[in-house]
Design brief:
With 208 residues, the chain is α+β, with helices and mostly antiparallel strands. The protein has helices at residues 18-52, 107-114, 157-165; strands at 58-69, 74-84, 90-99, 102-104, 129-130, 138-139, 144-151, 170-176, 182-186, 193-195. It is built from 3 helices and 10 strands, in the order H-E-E-E-E-H-E-E-E-H-E-E-E.
C-alpha cells in the first residue's frame, strides 16, 4: 500500500493542564493589550509634547513710549501691539478692534469713535503709522506686531485723547499654531480660549 502524501496537522502542544493553558493564554492576551495601550499612550504623550513645544501665546501691549522715526527724528508715540510670548509661531486668522463696544475696521474708525469731538470741522494733517490687513501673517515667538503707532502730535487733540483711552481699546484676535491648534484671545480675558477653528470676524481690523 502507498502511504498518503498528505501531512496530518498536529494540535499545538499544551501543558497537559487545561486550567494552566487557559491562564497562559489569558496572560499573553493581557500583556498584548498592555503593550498596545503603552504604545498608544506614548504616541499621545509625544504629540502633546511636540504641541506644547510649539505653543503660541498672544498678549496685548499699549503705551506711549514707543520710539520710531516719522521723518522728524525719533519720536515718542502712542502704540498698540500684539506680542507672541509663547514658544512657537502664531499665524493670525482674525483681528478685531473696538471702543465702547463699537467695532473699528481701521485706525481712522477708531479715532472717530474715541477721539474726534462732535462737530469738528477740520483736523490738522498729522501722520501715523499702521499695518495693513495682517490676516494670515505669522508672528514668531518672542516677536511683536505693532497695529498702530502715532508720534506725539501736540497740534492734534485726537492724540492726547487716544493716549488717555489707549487702555480701553478692545482687542480680539484668533490665531493658530503650526499644527493648526487655534486659540481666541480677548483683551477682556486673562487667558486664550482653545477653539476648533477661527470664526470670521464680523468687522475685521484691516489697518488704515
Amino acid at each position: 500500500m502507498e502511504e498518503s502524501s498528505h501531512a496530518h496537522a498536529h494540535p499545538p502542544h499544551g501543558t497537559g493542564f487545561r486550567w494552566l493553558d487557559i491562564s497562559l493564554a489569558l496572560s499573553a492576551f493581557v500583556v498584548s493589550l498592555a503593550s498596545l495601550w503603552l504604545t498608544v499612550h506614548n504616541a499621545r504623550t509625544m504629540e502633546r509634547l511636540v504641541a506644547s513645544n510649539s505653543y503660541p501665546n498672544i498678549d496685548f501691549s499699549n503705551g506711549n513710549g514707543f520710539d520710531f522715526d516719522d521723518g522728524r527724528g525719533v519720536q515718542h508715540a502712542v502704540y498698540l501691539s500684539l506680542d507672541n510670548t509663547g514658544i512657537g509661531p502664531a499665524r493670525l486668522r482674525s483681528i478685531e478692534l473696538s471702543f465702547a463696544g463699537k467695532p473699528a475696521a481701521s485706525l481712522r474708525d477708531l479715532l472717530a469713535l474715541c477721539c474726534t469731538e462732535e462737530g469738528a470741522a477740520s483736523l490738522p494733517k498729522t501722520s501715523y503709522r499702521f499695518v495693513g490687513d495682517m490676516r494670515g501673517a505669522m508672528i514668531r515667538a518672542g516677536e511683536s506686531l505693532t497695529l498702530f503707532a502715532w508720534a506725539e502730535a501736540p497740534a492734534d487733540p485726537r492724540w492726547a485723547r487716544l493716549e488717555k483711552i489707549r487702555g480701553e481699546i478692545g482687542v480680539r484676535v484668533c490665531y493658530c499654531s503650526v499644527f493648526d491648534e487655534c486659540y481666541r484671545r480677548d483683551s477682556a480675558q486673562h487667558e486664550p480660549v482653545r477653539v476648533t477653528a477661527c470664526p470670521a470676524a464680523a468687522v475685521p481690523y484691516t489697518g488704515g
